[in-house]
Amino acid sequence: MLLSQNVSAVGPLNLYPMVHISLMFGISYILPDFSDESCTLKMTLRNLQSILSWEFKNHSVVPTHYTLWYTIMSKQEDMKIVGDCTNITRSFCDLTDVWVNMTEMYIPKVVGFRGNTALVSCMGSFFLAMETLPLDPPEFEIIGFTDHVSVNVKFQSVAPKMLNEEELQFYLALIEEQSGGIVKKHKPKTNGNITENFSYVINKLIPKTNYCVSVYFEPKDPRKINRSPLKCTLFQPGWESESSESATIGGIITLFLIAAVVISTVMMLKQIGYICLRNDFPKVLNFYKLSVCVFPELPPLEKVATVEVIHINRKKKVWNYNYDDESDSDNEAAPRISAGGYTTHGLTGRLCPASVSSATLEDCSDPATEECDLPEPKAGAEAPVAPGPSPWQSECTSRGYQGRANLLQDHFSEEDSSSTEGSGDRIVFNVDLNSVCVRALEDNDDSEVTPVLPSRPEETVVLEDPDETESDLLVASGEGTQLPFPGPSAECLWPEDTPSDKSDTSESDVDMGDGYVTR
Amino acid sequence: MSAEPDVIRKCTWPVCLVGLFVTGILSLDCSLLDVHLRRVTWQNLSLLSRMSKSFPIECLRESKAFELPQEILSHTQPLTRDIKEAFYEMSRQAFHIFIQDTFRSTWEEKHLRQVQIGLDQQLQYLEQCLEEEEEENEDMREMAEDEWTQSGAPVPQLSNLELRRYFNRIDRFLKDKKYSHCAWEIVRVEIRRCFYFFHKFTALLRRK
Fold first, then answer.
1. What is one GO biological process annotated to this record (chain B) (predicted)?
2. In order of start, what are the domains of chain B with their CATH numbers?
3. Which of A240, A422, A481, A489 is the most buried (most CB within 10 A)?
4. In this predicted model, what pLDDT tens digit does every residue of A449-487 receive, in sequence order?
5. Subunit contact A31:B192, Cβ cutoff 8 A
């Protein structure tokens, strides 16, 4: 039409050039404007729908409606108009059911009209097999269960025909879980059909962790992946016991490994000499006797033996402690120094009304009793240290021990013998030989056996000033069986002070000659 | 002067190793032929698409229907060897077309060279695998041919004939159009279409 209008307006002389110009103008109208700068054609997949969209760059000319034609390369065919995209105002067209052959190359043409006037046109070529069309991700929902997370994917009911079964191999739905920054891809098997909904289960999840899922199709070109927005859920399973048990086991194993590493490191350092370990610990770290300290050994039971005391009235020889009168007379009360260095004194006492077994000796002490002085032990004492009782030992470890026998003796002498067993002058009672001083008197007064007390294996004599050791009755020592040096107040139960030249030995001889028992 | 022998000595051993590896790579495992064909065919497809930005619309009117024999790939149960032979024939014919020097001005030479190399590799692999298969299953192939003949189904070797005719039409078109720019563009599009068709055909090899 345009061609005919141009020809009638000119004269015969200028007919040829005008006709030429008109023809050119007509041809330019017929031939599409395939300049890339004038328009842009784009093919996309939206909800699995093949959508062809266009955009004209010349905004000064805005068409009111559009019409789409197309043809194929494999055959010589005229342009075919797309019925659903004729005189449309939108700038896109759904070709899902039109372009179905992936092996074909389609040549579309879009013409923009304003009224009945064609303003612009645009053509292009599309080989769908090589078009990396980004697929929109399908709809999905994520549901958290006690032991797993389920992802339900909803596909479109109608798939584009171009995405037949063979073409779907290029597109896969991937599910990513983002937990703690870690992205894990899952490739669920869709069996090549993207029209059926399916559910994908994700298990082996970490408890109390937020999991997010994104779904997308995977095209040939990874750069054109169109991902769906993330949907998240907090995984709080009911299988916490299993996870806690596994965590406990893991923790125990970890502790063992750490201990093994530390021990091996210490041993290695010891081997190379970096650290030196002592085998002998200081005394303060010697816990060998800890049990002894914590659980002290009970003292051995006192051996009680039956002793028959025969009271014999004898004249007591009392030392009057008159230092001024130093006579050489045979004053038996005078202290005699035995060979063992003992000084014996005779003691008198009175009986206390208290019972035999529980006499309190402080009340029963006789003021007339005299002390029993024992020579101070000297360093490197001359007295032999016998394995058993030694001369240094005093039978009187305490006043209590001494007075007990003393009381017993006085008791027997003053009271009637009817209170005790026995008859007449014979009294039978139980005496702890470890706590009394006994001595056997023989006919020969000269003979004197220095009485000693049985020793205690744990006790020893401290070679110190007696005054200082008055209160130290027992001093522990690893050797010896000596008793501590008694104080000046110690009393010896010596009814007769007949020093003996014989040194006491550890022999325990029982001599009942004068009624005394020697040990 | 003395550095060159040292360099040669240093590079000899690595080159030998590379050569061994290349030889190992080039020696195709025929059990993975379908994978290789699929990959190489897709590469050639991509190269043909990149050789030209867009189809010149002005050449649309010179287009021609070359009638690709799609029926050769439509057999219900084509034999594996038939598929391989069809691949071989297609690759040989396409290589023959692109080895001509008349289209240097149409496309970039590097793209054309890559297409030639790809087709040559495809031919080598197919030759090797076909020879191995022929030596092992020669008797079975003869029996299969007899069965096809008796059942009335088309002889598989006709597919190769159809392919040869197809590519002959393309070659004749080029000569008639005097190897013009539009002729080459139309041929490029057509062969790309053929490649894609055979790319879908590799799925049959995988299933077998």
1. defense response to virus
2. 85-99+108-141+157-207 (1.20.1250.10)
3. A481
4. 444 444 444 444 444 444 444 444 333 333 434 444 444
5. no
